[in-house]
Amino acid sequence: QVQLAESGGGLVQAGGSLRLSCVVSGRSFRSLALAWFRQAPGKEREFVANIGLTGSTYGDAVKGRLAISRDNDRNTVYLQMNVLKHGDTALYYCAGAVLGSTWDWGCWGPGTQVTVFS
Questions:
Q1: Torsion angles phi and psi, residue 31, rounded to 5
Q2: With bands split at pLDDT 50, 70 and 90, how would you rate the model's confidence at 102?
Q3: How far, in whole angstroms, is CA 50 from its chain's centroid?
Q4: What is the mean pLDDT of the chain?
Q5: Distance separating alpha carbons of residues 32 and 30, to the nearest angstrom
Q6: What's the CA gap between 74 and 118, in Å, rounded?
Q7: Lowest CB count within 10 Å: 53, 56, 64, 105, which one?
């Protein structure tokens, strides 16, 4: 069973940066696509970014400010967050899907909280 554990969240001033990490275990890391989602209080879960073995995609709200990457030797996926805004405040989740023609995000971590203050 795939297990995901996020870390790196915290309190940051607007305009600052954070890097989130998600360590994956329980399955060959190279067989997985990984993604970040977020959920703010009172809002639906929102797609942030995903990454396969060769490419990545981003949600419109974060393009140009956030970057997803993966380290296949460390079984870790990262989310570099720059120029943070108050609207980035949310619980950030890491998700995994078996690589294939479609990606079914069936595995989730417990989340890490990011709070941006002015």
A1: -90, 0
A2: confident
A3: 8
A4: 96
A5: 5
A6: 34
A7: 64
* Spatial separation of the C-alpha atoms in residues 10 and 43, rounded to whole Å: 20
Residues 2 and 32 sit within 8 Å (Cβ to Cβ): yes
Cβ contact 4:107 at 8 Å: yes
CA 99 to chain centre: 17
Neighbours of 26 (CB within 10 A): 13
Residue with tokens 């002015």: 118
**Residue 12 and residue 101: Cα distance in Å, rounded?**
38
Report the C-alpha gap between 76 and 25 in whole angstroms. 9
Radius of gyration (C-alpha) of the chain in whole angstroms: 13
Mean pLDDT, rounded, for 77-85: 97
Angle at 50 between CA 9 and CA 33, to 5 degrees: 110
Q: What is the pLDDT of residues 31-72, one digit of tens each?
A: 999 999 999 999 999 999 999 998 999 999 999 999 999 999
